[in-house]
Design goal:
Number of strands: 6
Number of helices: 11
Structural class: mainly alpha
Oligomer: single chain
Order of helices and strands: HEEHHHEEEEHHHHHHH
Radius of gyration: 18 Å
Strand order of the largest sheet: 1-2
Helix content: 55-70%
Distance between the termini: 35 Å
Largest sheet: 2 strands, antiparallel
Length: 275
C-alpha cells in the first residue's frame, strides 16, 4: 500500500454495486483511513491490549460527561468505531461465543439528525417494560450484560480471551484493508448484508443480528428476533437508508463494508457453506 498516495487524497472512493448491479461508490475520509492504517501498522499484541483496555477505561469518564476536550472525545469515538469493526468480525466468525446472547462491548448509537454517525461502549441499560424506567441489565440470558459491565463481569482469564480474539481480528483486518485500498472487492453491500443475516440465522448467531440491527434501526431492543430479521428483508428500505446517508460513509457504510469483506474471506478461506 502506498502511504504517500493515501496522504494526498482527501477521500478514498470505494467501488460497490448498486441495487441494479451497476457500479457505484461511496467515499471515506482520509483522516479516518490514516488512523486505521496507523493502528494496523503499529499495534502489536502487547500494544493492542493496552489500546483495548485504555478504550474501556475511557467509558466511565464518557458516561459521566467528564470528557470535555474535543480531541479526547473524538479519540474515544474513533476508538469505539475501530473496536466495533473488530468486534463484528469476531462475532460473525463465531470466535466471540463467550458473549452468549449479548451484542458485546460496542453498540451503534441512535441517529442524530437522521444519521447514524457514532458508536460507543454499551452502557448495559434497558427499558423496563413494567415500570417504563431505564435500569441496568441483570446479566441473565434474557438480559445479558453489555459493554463495560459485560467485560468486567468476566474473570481476568476470560477478559484475556476476548482481547485475544480482537487482536486476532486485527491481523485479519490487515489483509482486508490492503485489498480495500486497492479496490479488490466489488459487490452489493446490501445484498451481502442480507446474506450475512441469513447465515447468522442458520448458525444461531442471533446476537450478531441484534448488533447489526442497530445499523438500520434506532430501537431494535424493542423488537423480537423475528422482527429484527424482517428489518433486513425489506430491501427497498435498506437501499433507502444507505442512499439517504442514514447509514453514513465513515461509520455505518465502512463498518458494513468491512464486515462484508470479512464474510467473503471467511467463506473462501474456511470453505464455509452459507445455507
Amino acid at each position: 500500500m502506498n502511504k504517500s498516495k493515501i496522504n494526498r487524497m482527501n477521500k478514498l472512493r470505494i467501488n460497490i454495486l448498486d441495487s441494479h448491479n451497476n457500479q457505484s461508490f461511496f467515499e471515506v475520509d482520509f483522516k479516518l483511513l490514516n488512523y486505521i492504517n496507523a493502528l494496523l501498522e503499529n499495534l502489536n499484541t502487547q500494544k493492542f491490549s493496552g489500546y483495548f483496555r485504555k478504550t474501556l477505561s475511557m467509558y466511565p469518564k464518557f458516561r459521566s460527561k467528564s470528557i470535555t476536550n474535543n480531541l479526547e472525545l473524538n479519540n474515544y469515538y474513533k476508538r469505539c468505531n475501530f473496536l466495533s469493526i473488530l468486534q463484528s468480525m469476531g462475532m460473525i466468525s463465531g470466535c466471540l461465543q463467550l458473549y452468549g446472547n449479548s451484542i458485546g462491548l460496542i453498540k451503534i448509537g441512535p441517529s442524530k439528525n437522521y444519521r447514524k454517525n457514532s458508536c460507543i461502549i454499551d452502557d448495559s441499560t434497558i427499558l423496563d417494560l413494567e415500570t417504563n424506567l431505564i435500569r441496568d441489565s441483570i446479566g441473565d440470558d434474557l438480559e445479558p450484560h453489555r459493554g463495560h459491565r459485560l467485560f468486567y463481569n468476566y474473570p481476568y482469564d476470560k477478559q484475556l480471551d476476548i482481547i485475544t480474539v480482537f487482536d486476532f481480528m486485527l491481523g485479519q483486518l490487515i489483509d482486508i484493508y490492503v485489498k480495500i485500498m486497492n479496490n479488490k472487492y466489488l459487490f452489493d453491500p446490501i445484498n451481502m448484508l442480507q446474506r450475512i443475516i441469513i447465515f447468522c440465522k442458520n448458525k444461531g448467531y442471533f446476537n450478531v443480528i441484534s448488533y447489526l440491527s442497530w445499523e438500520i434501526h434506532d430501537s431494535p431492543h424493542l423488537l423480537s428476533i423475528d422482527e429484527k430479521i424482517e428489518l433486513f428483508n425489506e430491501s427497498e428500505n435498506l437501499y433507502y437508508l444507505w442512499n439517504s446517508d442514514f447509514i453514513t460513509n465513515n461509520q455505518g457504510k465502512l463498518r458494513i463494508y468491512i464486515m462484508c469483506c470479512y464474510f467473503i474471506e471467511l467463506l473462501e478461506r474456511d470453505n464455509i457453506r452459507e445455507f
